Amino acid sequence: MTALKFLFTPIKIGNMDVKNRLVMPPMGINFGVDEEGNVTDQLWEYFLVRAKGGTGMIIVGGGAVHPTGLDLPKLPRLWDDKFIPALKKMTDVVHQYNVKFGMQLLHGGRQAYLGRKVAPSPIPALGVVTGMPKELTIPEIKEMVDAFGDSSRRCKEAGFDFVEIHASHGYLITEFLAPNSNKRQDEYGGSFENRIRFLLEVLHNIKEKTDSDFPVGVRINGEDYVKDGWTIEDTKRIAPILEKERADYLHISAGIYGSFPITIPSMYSQQCCFVHLAEEVKKKVSIPVIAVGRIKNPEFADRIIKEGKADMVSMGRAHLADPEIASKSQAGMIAAIRPCIGCCLGCVNNCFLLEAATCVMNPEVNREYMFKGPQKAATPKKILVAGAGPAGLAVSRMAAIRGHKVIICEEKGYIGGMIKLAAVPPGRSELLDLVEYYQRELDKLHVEIRLNVNLDKELIISIDPDAVVLATGSIPKIPRIEGLLDSEMDIHSVLDVLEGNITVGDQVLVLGGNQAGLEIADFLVEKGKEVMVLHRDEHFAIEMARNDRTYLRERLKKSNVQLYKSVTIKQFLPTGIIFCVKDNEIRLEGFRDIVISEGMASIRNAANLFRDMDISVHIIGDAKNPRSLLYSQTEADELGRSI
């Protein structure tokens, strides 16, 4: 048992006593708000399970203070008193547990997805969203200041324990702070003192409209990570001012839309990547400082506090993956925690697509109000699962939790399927956390796993299952392109390369710029190879979450790799290729190897074994149709709940 004695000590924020140092920070999740803008049971059940899980402080992500600043369709609205009753229902539900429950106050500014974009200056966002914002007039600035104050008063009336001002990530307040987005020539622009004026007026307005004892935190960037943006020196300079002006805590984050590193980093980024910023700010103030930045390991979180780098630790996506992360950590059950793998697929990418957030590791996210946890099966069955890839592992876990006897048969000598190979390229090893978690869970649930076993009728008869799940995966497709098989180049699949069964020359062609193709290129470039990627589609790696893809594309900005998209292949040469990009014809020669990465084909021929058997057969994952990890895990979870 691991004792996390620093993470689970109480702390005082203003007059508010918090039972531990673990924070579930505000996250845009885009669900749980009805057509009128009222929060619903979908949202409060989501927060309830995390409050029940033992977290000390929970902050609702981005309550919109003004119609012009609405960032996502399903953000809580705060700009009218009519929203208070539903918010009060939510706080009453969540307060069943000893948690401090707060609301973050947000105006999207020029980065607002849906609002009528306004900003201190008419300068468009650097990334993600498009459109020229309207420059705010002085009376409109005063209106925005009041909007923050009035929204905080509504939050207090609705029963929230505190509010947090969102002054980071490139939204409206950040735009006033940063020189690159604030070109005003009046009292709100120019000097440092003028650029911080809007934030200080917001803080004063909130204090006036609540009371001096109502805690108010400020989330602010330690670094914008863009040219002429807000910097750590700026944050160190404003931190004592915010403390003097009665801010009760500081929540130190980083990045804006279009920055690199980005605000919500993927598995390519180091864990605890922004903690050093909080550490610097903590040296300047005596009020509590909260650290953020891909903190997924509670032992790391405990060490941050022990070493005095911060007073509290935010673990955002870790709370999506496992709502019980606090109680499991406090009990020393670290191995039982369902890990975030940093893929950004369900959480971040869904919101960019204006869909409800969920989680690869926890498909219950956004459906807590429906499921109320797995229900025991009325009639336990014997279930044969063919394939120990991610879909097979997920369905087996859920079925076993519900009381079924599950037997997994896998033709390879290991579990994990494609994930084992997908974890080989640089920066992808965290995918193995998924496999290791399922191994621990299946061991605990006494699920039998048979490796190096081929599925045949004799095996099926010997097991005599009531139901069968085919999670047999997929294999690489070889495209039908004239001349491909006639060249003198050695043709390999992405699996050949990742399995280490072949040795390629110093120059390699990769046909296909999907996720696997770019990751193979990264893998080969790391080994010193010169790589040319030819992609016949318009966009690279569309299967990846945008944040994850950004990191990979940055990694591929190297001299020994070249990416071509919208490619038309004209001719294969003995040791090369002729192709067109737009109207330009390009000839590449001197290659010994070509790696094919143009999609996968399902393996489901095993279904034929059951044609004359009275056994229900379910096909999931890539065996049904090659799809992303998010969809395969969700599908497997749903089947495990219903089978």
Describe the structure.
The two termini are 35 Å apart. This protein has 21 helices and 27 strands. An 8-stranded parallel barrel has the order 3-4-5-8-9-10-11-12, surrounded by 6 helices. The chain has a 5-stranded parallel beta sheet with strand order 15-14-13-16-27, covered by helices on one side. Strands 18-25-19-20-21 form a 5-stranded parallel beta sheet. It folds into 3 domains: 11-370, Alpha-Beta Barrel (TIM Barrel), CATH 3.20.20; 377-475 and 601-642, 3-Layer(aba) Sandwich (Rossmann fold), CATH 3.40.50; 484-598, FAD/NAD(P)-binding domain (3-Layer(bba) Sandwich). 31% of the residues lie in helices and 19% in strands. The chain is α/β, with parallel strands linked by helices. Helix 1 packs parallel to helix 2, helix 3 runs parallel beside helix 6 and helix 14 runs parallel beside helix 16. The mean pLDDT is 97.
Present the secondary structure layout.
Layout: E1 11-13, E2 16-18, E3 22-24, H1 41-52, E4 57-64, H2 84-94, E5 100-106, E6 118-119, E7 134-135, H3 138-157, E8 162-167, H4 172-177, H5 192-195, H6 197-209, E9 216-223, H7 232-244, E10 249-254, H8 275-282, E11 289-291, H9 298-306, E12 312-314, H10 316-321, H11 325-330, H12 345-352, H13 368-371, E13 382-386, H14 390-401, E14 405-409, H15 418-422, H16 432-444, E15 448-450, H17 457-463, E16 467-470, E17 474-476, E18 490-493, H18 494-499, E19 507-511, H19 515-526, E20 530-534, H20 546-555, E21 561-564, E22 567-573, E23 576-581, E24 584-589, E25 593-596, E26 600-602, E27 616-619, H21 629-642
Parallel strand pairs: 3-4, 3-12, 4-5, 5-8, 6-7, 8-9, 9-10, 10-11, 11-12, 13-14, 13-16, 14-15, 16-27, 18-25, 19-20, 19-25, 20-21
Antiparallel strand pairs: 1-2, 17-26, 22-23, 23-24
Helix pairs in contact: 1-2, 3-6, 14-16, 14-21, 19-20
